[in-house]
DNA sequence: GCGCTTAGTTGAACGTGTTCAAATTCAGCT
DNA sequence: AGCTGAATTTGAACACGTTCAACTAAGCGC
């Protein structure tokens, strides 16, 4: 039931994979040129030299085509960020680097990225970043922030340190959301926002690391946990622990 | 160009208004019973005893039907919150009251509220709470938080006080977003989240009001301003001040 | 009454994403 | 070579949101 797409058995040339890739490439090219809404499934199928139904055989819906793009985008972001991190030692510098390269990588796709997040807010969409379907990308993303923190010199209390990668990921999603709506020249506004927020975050993290702040910090972290729990049981009809 | 719907001149019986209301009532009833996606424009038109095209004469698109619902929901929320505020004097209590009544009011519509915010994230949608089309509702909402603050005893520095209504509105949007995804029994999770976040907010506001925190507060408020500016020029092709 | 304009109304037609039963290909087996 | 079942492919059909040219009704100036 689960693995709708493609099997592994008996693939000399991997015919299925080839077709799948062909459709995906064609779709992404057309999305880039004409935008998402303006590109019809029929047009994709036709340009790929494939029947309409066949496109649906490999991609359950039009949205799943975006998800593939999403994954690809993310891969290149990781690729760009890791080397750039070598130079930076402070938390602030490292955060700046990651966030800037993130936007750099996405830049070419700005015009049609809007659609990406249009449906992303829909809990039923495969693009919902909190949903099951986005798990691989999400995990990788959070790991990147792990690395950001690991290489930094800042001393951060354990409780906060544990949640910080997740929190920074959420923060980065907010920035991307802003970027999508940002139509200023060269996305200056987004870069400026990154500068300001990173500086603020840096200060906040240090402030929160102050022993004086321990009670408030604890309380805030409890809240974060709660939110995360809730996000994880999005599709359940009932929260855990109460059989109706 | 702007006022697509209905004119005032020469309306003895207000025929147009009547039809408009009829369609809206029918639509909302069907949304409540069957959900948004499951209710087709054809079905609405048929049940209202009106042609399909006529429905589109009064509502530019299906989404505009939701916007009407949105406005109505908001009205009753204000109605419920204001009297309830009489008793409360502390900031914390007042915030709690407003947030709880907000959820109380929305409760009956939980099942189909998901659609409301599915498109709300789309900057092109009339439902986008930051967009022009939502201006009346937004303004009213922010004013409600004005009242919350006005009646509270807490001493808050002017700079923060000025931004707080807007910030609390954004906060309330976050809570609603959570509520939509919350499928726990009686929305317990949302109420719990409100309790926790209000307590945290209360502490944060007092912390931020400490003279010691002034520089950080100033910086954070500058950021808020920046974000708000950006939100206001959503539809522009260029940010203000740079002619391309 | 008569033409003119405008509001209101109609339903056929379009383009879309999606589904599905049937056709086709293909690899492995006898 | 022929058979079999699974993987792949097809295109017609469906249901929907939306558009639009045409129609009707109603008021207004003459």
What does this structure look like?
Two copies of one chain form a homodimer. Chain A is mainly α and 244 residues long. Chain A has helices spanning 15-34, 41-47, 52-58, 62-85, 91-106, 110-120, 135-150, 158-181, 188-209, 214-232. Residues 1-12 and 235-244 of chain A have low confidence and may be disordered. The interface between A and B is large, with 43 and 43 residues. Chain A binds a DNA duplex (30 and 30 nucleotides) through residues 6-7, 9-10, 12, 15-16, 19, 40-42, 50-54, 56-57, 61-62.
SSE arrangement:
The structure is a homodimer of 244-residue chains.
Chain A: H1 15-34, H2 41-47, H3 52-58, H4 62-85, H5 91-106, H6 110-120, H7 135-150, H8 158-181, H9 188-209, H10 214-232
Helix pairs in contact in A: 1-2, 2-3, 4-5, 4-7, 5-9, 6-8, 7-8, 8-9, 8-10
The first copy, chain A, binds a DNA duplex (30 and 30 nucleotides) through residues 6-7, 9-10, 12, 15-16, 19, 40-42, 50-54, 56-57, 61-62.
Mean pLDDT of chain A: 85
Helix content of chain A: 55-70%
Structural class of chain A: mainly alpha
Regarding quaternary structure, what we see is: homodimer
Percent strand of chain A equals under 5%
- Greatest interface by residues involved: A-B, 43 and 43 residues
The helix tally of chain A amounts to 10
* DSSP, total strands of chain A: 0
Write a concise keyword list for the protein shown above.
DNA-binding, homodimer, 244 residues, 10 helices
């Amino acid at each position: 039931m689960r693995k709708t797409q493609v099997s592994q058995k008996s693939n000399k040339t991997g015919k299925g994979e080839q077709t799948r890739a062909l459709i995906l490439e064609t779709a992404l090219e057309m999305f880039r040129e004409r935008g998402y809404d303006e590109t019809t499934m029929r047009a994709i199928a036709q340009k790929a030299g494939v029947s309409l139904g066949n496109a649906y055989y490999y991609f359950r819906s039009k949205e799943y085509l975006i998800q593939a793009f999403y994954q690809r985008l993310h891969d290149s972001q990781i690729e760009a960020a890791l080397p750039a991190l070598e130079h930076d030692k402070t938390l602030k510098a490292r955060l700046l680097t990651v966030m800037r390269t993130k936007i750099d990588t996405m830049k070419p796709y700005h015009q049609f990225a809007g659609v990406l997040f249009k449906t992303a807010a829909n809990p039923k969409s495969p693009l919902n970043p909190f949903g099951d379907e986005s798990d691989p990308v999400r995990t990788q993303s959070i790991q990147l922030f792990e690395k950001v923190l690991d290489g930094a010199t800042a001393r951060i209390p354990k409780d906060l340190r544990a949640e910080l990668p997740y929190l920074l990921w959420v923060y980065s999603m907010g920035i991307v959301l802003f970027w999508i709506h940002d139509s200023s020249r060269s996305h200056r506004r987004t870069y400026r926002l990154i500068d300001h927020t990173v500086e603020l975050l840096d200060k906040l993290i240090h402030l929160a690391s102050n022993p004086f702040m321990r009670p408030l910090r604890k309380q805030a972290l409890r809240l974060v946990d709660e939110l995360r729990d809730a996000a994880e049981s999005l599709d359940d009809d009932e929260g855990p622990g109460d059989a109706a």
